[in-house]
Amino acid sequence: DPCRNFHCKRGKVCHADKQGKPHCICQDPAACPPTKDYEHVCGTDNKTYDGTCQLFGTKCQLEGTKMGRQLHLDYMGSCKYIPPCTDYEVDQFPLRMRDWLKNILIQYYERDLNTSGILTEKQRNKVKKIYQNDKRLAAGDHPVELLLHDFEKNYHMYVYPVHWQFHQLDQHPVDRLLTHSELAPLRASLVPMEHCITRFFQECDGDQDKLIALQEWCHCFGIKE
């Protein structure tokens, strides 16, 4: 099979011509395998697609057109009304997001205590301090002086989770810049729950070059230079 090890990007499938030479052609959206309701996705055209196969197949067929350039995966699930994000909400968003990233790393660390493999040894050492500090703070009442001291200390505890998430997303290629497609896995899964995330990422791109550099990313999360 000439297509066995021939790779095509999303929205395309391998097809062998008469000479048996493999090349990529657009996926026919109608030929995509059937999906369950929970696999539906919403495109940036505010249209519900049966799954990512149908969405990216449609995008491929529109290649070279304005509509094709503008069509992306918006979020997981069927399209629904997403309320606008207020200025107050977007101001509070980095704090919630920072806390959420910290909690994800703590959960990974706790899982690694039983079965290792999620975090590397270097990551575990970083998260261990965050984990211990978080458990100590959750233990009960503390004097104001200690809480003030912890506020300064905890600020540094949030730096690593923010850097860690950037590194997790910066994969195609690893160039210290996040593209729309690199952000998509995180953004698409969060939009139905966090309606401010689209505006948050748009405002993160300070120079409007459609790329989020590490410095822009950290600035968005309130991390000092």
Automatic annotation (TrEMBL):
Sequence ranges assigned to domain Kazal-like in this UniProt record:
25-81
A molecular function GO annotation:
collagen binding
Enumerate the Pfam families for this protein.
Answer: FOLN, Kazal_1, SPARC_Ca_bdg
Superkingdom as given in the UniProt entry: Eukaryota
GO cellular component terms, A-Z: extracellular space
* Gene3D superfamilies (UniProt xref): 3.30.60.30, EF-hand
- What UniProt keywords apply to this chain's record, in alphabetical order? Calcium, Disulfide bond, Extracellular matrix, Glycoprotein, Metal-binding, Secreted, Signal
Q: Where in the cell is it found?
A: Secreted, Extracellular space, Extracellular matrix
- Family membership, please give it: Belongs to the SPARC family.
What name does this protein carry?
Answer: SPRL1 protein
Q: Record the organism.
A: Gymnorhina tibicen (Australian magpie)
